[in-house]
Amino acid sequence: MATTVMTALSASIGFNFNPLDRRSDKRDDHAFLEHLRSDPAARFLVFDGDVPLLKRGSEYDPWFVASETTAFGQPLHSVFLGEDTDGSGRFALGFVLNPALNLAPEDPSPGTAYDRIDLRSLALQDLVAAGTLGTLAEAKSMLDWHRRHSFCANCGSTSRVTTAGWQRVCDACGARHFPRVDPVVIMLVIDGERCLLGRQRHFASGMYSALAGFVEPGETAEDAVRREVMEEARVKCAEVVYFASQPWPFPSSLMIGCFAQASDTDIVVDTAELEDARWFSRQEVAAMLAGTHADGLSTPKPFAIAHHLLQAYVEKGGLVLPG
C-alpha cells in the first residue's frame, strides 16, 4: 500500500499534505468499494457545487457519516478518495443544494448545523487541519471535473462515470476520459541580492508575488519559465531550477515552483498581464514577509507556494541557484 512521504517544506505548503492512500489499484473492485462504503467508519465530504459543507462545533468538521448525507438527497457525483490511515474509506459527494437550507456562512442561523466555506477561505483562515485541507483539494478538483465533463469531448454524447469516479467512458464512441491537471510554472527570478516580483490588478492592495503562467503543449517546465518571464516582463532567464510543487484546486492545476537566474535586468511590463513588475531587494522581501514593509507592501500568505519561494530566497539568497 502507498504511504505518504513528504519533506517538511512540502508539507508546509497549502493543499500538499493528503494522508489518504488513494488505492488506485482497487478503483474497479466493486466488492472492495462497497465494503468500504457500507462500513460505519466510512466518512464522506459533501460539496454544494464547488464549496464544501462543514459541520459546526468547537472546530469545523467536513466529514459526514453516511446517514447524515441522506438529508441532502441523491448526489450528482460520487468519488472514492482513498483509505484513511485506519483503513476506513473516504468519499466525496457532489450536490446542488436547495438555498432554503440556509447554509451561507456570512450570517448563519443559530438553528442550522452547517456552513458553506470555500476552499480558499479555509486555507487562508487555517480553519481545518492540513491533511483535511489536502483531501478537500482532491475532492474539489475531482467533483469540478465531473461537473465540467459530462459530455464526451470526442463525439458530444453523454459519458458515464466508472473506476470509482476516476474515469468517464463514452458508450457511443468508446472514448475514455481522465481527470485533467493543468501544469503551471511559478518562478522567482533572481539577480543577486534582488528578485523580480509582479502584481495583477485583482491582487489585494500592495501585494506582489512571483510571476506565473501555464505550461503549453510540447513545452518543458524550464522553457515555460523562460517564456512567461519574457512575455510578462521582457527579462531573459538562463538557469532554471526546480523548488517544490503544489496542487492548486482552482479548479485543478499543479503549481511547479522554480527559481530562475536573470541574464538581463531591464523590465518592460506587459500591461495586459500585469499591473506592475519591479526588482525588490532581499531585505525588502524579508520586510514584506514579516508585514513590516515601509510602504505596506505584502506577499502571498503561507498557504501559497509563492510565499515559500520568497521565504527560501530570503533565507538562502543566491544559494537557491546552483553554482
UniProtKB/TrEMBL annotation:
SUPFAM superfamilies given in the database record: Nudix
UniProt GO molecular function: metal ion binding; NADH pyrophosphatase activity
Cofactor(s) needed: Mg(2+); Zn(2+)
GO biological process: NAD+ catabolic process; NADP+ catabolic process
Keyword annotations: Hydrolase, Magnesium, Metal-binding, NAD
Pfam families: NUDIX, NUDIX-like, Zn_ribbon_NUD
Residue span, Nudix hydrolase domain: 179-304
InterPro entries recorded: NAD-cap_RNA_hydrolase_NudC, NADH_PPase-like_N, NudC-like_C, NUDIX_hydrolase-like_dom_sf, NUDIX_hydrolase_CS, NUDIX_hydrolase_dom, Znr_NADH_PPase
GO cellular component labels: cytosol
CDD domains associated with the record: NUDIX_NADH_pyrophosphatase_Nudt13 (cd03429)
Catalytic activity entry: a 5'-end NAD(+)-phospho-ribonucleoside in mRNA + H2O = a 5'-end phospho-adenosine-phospho-ribonucleoside in mRNA + beta-nicotinamide D-ribonucleotide + 2 H(+)
KW Ubl conjugation (keyword) present: no
The EC number(s) this enzyme carries: 3.6.1.22
Family per record: Belongs to the Nudix hydrolase family. NudC subfamily.
Classification via PANTHER family: NAD-CAPPED RNA HYDROLASE NUDT12, NUDIX HYDROLASE, NUDC SUBFAMILY
Protein name listed in UniProt: NAD(+) diphosphatase
Upper lineage: Bacteria, Pseudomonadati, Pseudomonadota, Betaproteobacteria, Burkholderiales
